[in-house]
Amino acid sequence: MGTRALLDVLGELVHGLETHRGGRGTKPSGSAESSSITEPSSITTSSGSTTSFSSPSPSVGPFFRVLDLGCGTGVLATAVALRIPGASVVATDRSAAAVLSAAATAAANGVGDRVATLRDDAAASVPDGSVDVVVCNPPFHAGAVVSTDIAEAMFRAAARVLRPGGELWVVWNSHLRYRPSLERVVGPTEQASRTPKFTVTRSVKR
Predict the structure, then answer these.
(1) Given the DSSP bridges, would you call strands 162-173 and 131-136 parallel, antiparallel or unpaired?
(2) What is the DSSP track for 171-193?
(3) Domain of 163?
(4) Which residues of 131-163 are buried (b: 16+ CB within 10 A; e: fewer)?
(5) Taking Cα atoms as reference points, which of 50, 20, 31, 2 lies closest to residue 133?
(6) Which of 74, 94, 110, 197 is the 20 to 30 Å CA partner of 104?
């Protein structure tokens, strides 16, 4: 599934953050103190299912601001909270059921007090330039119709809330070819992982 693909490159994200603390690229906001990363290998969702993932464990600065945009069950937000104890994590979705599910997933994994949930459409209430990293697994159906409109709206929202140099990490079905949109809306985009089914990209806000 797409979320699993993004979880599997979460280690690349935290390795990237560690590299950036050395002065190459994005640098976390806030204190320069580091916070050790824990080693969870799976996450229990609100429905009781388990998603496994693997990633290495460097250290990153605390007060790192992460937004799970269109959070669904909250697996990505919970993974970030587990992997980066110093991060400030917000899970947002326009669906009330999704927000409740995300809160339940965070609570089931012991990070309910560290993952804030917010019912919001396209992060409308999140201030401009206030986020260091956005993670996103956008839907590509509008009802029964395949559409890129929702994803592109989410890319625009991510570009708005990210600070300059912030990062958008997206997992998407490989046939959708989102990279030109990401380059145009957010900034320089590189492929972090790809299978015949899923692609994961990292875009840096201009």
Answers:
(1) parallel
(2) EEEGGG--HHHHHHHT--EEEEE
(3) 2-204
(4) bbbbbbbbebeeeeeeebeebbebbebbbbbbb
(5) 20
(6) 197
User: Hey, what are 44's tokens?
Assistant: 């229990």
Residue carrying structure tokens 């919970």: 78
Question: What are the pLDDT digits (tens) for 165-176?
Answer: 999 998 888 888
pLDDT tens digit string along 125-151? 999 999 999 999 898 756 566 678 899
- Based on the structure, what is the number of domains in the chain? 1
The contacts found for 203-206 with CB under 8 angstroms, 24 or more apart, are 203/167, 203/168, 203/169, 203/170, 204/25, 204/26, 204/165, 204/166, 204/167, 205/159, 205/162, 205/163, 205/164, 205/165, 205/166, 205/167, 205/168, 206/164
